[in-house]
Amino acid sequence: MRLVYVLVKGVIVVPDSTRATGPWLGVTRTPSLQRVANRPIVCHVLDALADAGAVEIAVAAPPEVAAEVIRCVESDGPPGVTVHHLLDERRGGRGDALREAAEFVADAPCILHRADGLLCEPILTTIEQPEHGVARDATLLVNNTRRSAMLRLVATKQVEDEHENGAPALGASGVAGACILGPGVMSGLSAPHAMQLLDFAAITEQLARGGASTQVQVARRWHHFAGDAHDLLDMNRAILDALDCEALPGPGDGNHFEGNIAIHPSARVIASVIIGPAVIGADASISDSYIGPHTSIGEHVRIEGAELERSIVLAGASVLHVGSRLVTSIVGRNARVFRDLSMPRALRLQVGEGDEVALC
Fold first, then answer.
1. The pTM is what?
2. How many structural domains comprise the chain?
């Protein structure tokens, strides 16, 4: 028998900002606001929680990024979901993020989820409940089987015995960014460290020590952005794989479309081949080009005489007659990639600190 909670509330935790690693981050340095499949990561998390049954969701963000997060959620968040914004003052003082979240959740079951990562699979189908049908008080998700064995949760006495023998306490290493709590569990948490940091592993360990019914579950498709461009490309691919939209070529436009493709009504596509899954943003212009699978083209982007696949092109950028196919690439906001045919013939680059250029 399989039993799942009727999840009615969610709490999304926005982590502190990461270091700047390249101009492809666009106008923001907030990891959860990086755009994949033409939307901020945090908005894809909102989608996932809504699909899991959460009709009310709270977003806890540090003060320095709260206003930016609110703007993004208002412009790109899913319709029909009530979003509350909690100011997380972890860095500025004695703010208690979990206390605020617990007041919001009250006695409802809930999902805790990081704002800078995605399970890329339905949350509820990830959770296996015991065959006798008794729902767990808490389920902690980890990102591989080996970590699952290392983070096995045990009853209070066994935990104490292991700590006395020098075994390490349950840590955050290998923990995926989601935790599911049963009815009334959130309001009963009390460990100050876990409450202040919203540490999912520490929260689950506290519950296990108190005799709660807990489990560790492997999430095999967890993707997390920590400043590496490849993280964004992997997340972009996983999201586009779930795209369910098919574009139809208009009469006389010379286009050829295959697979699942989402094209904004204001975008213009002429004499081009697009193979999905792919997404084309508002006011984008594509002509005489090839757009291959797992590619996201942002708003106001111009693609002309070019070939791209497995790539992300952010808003306002242009890729013009480059003479070679771009693959697994990220083109930053308002950037220009073009082929210069003027003499003398040479490679002319403007490469900033931390940028990466591969010449093939």
1. 0.84
2. 2
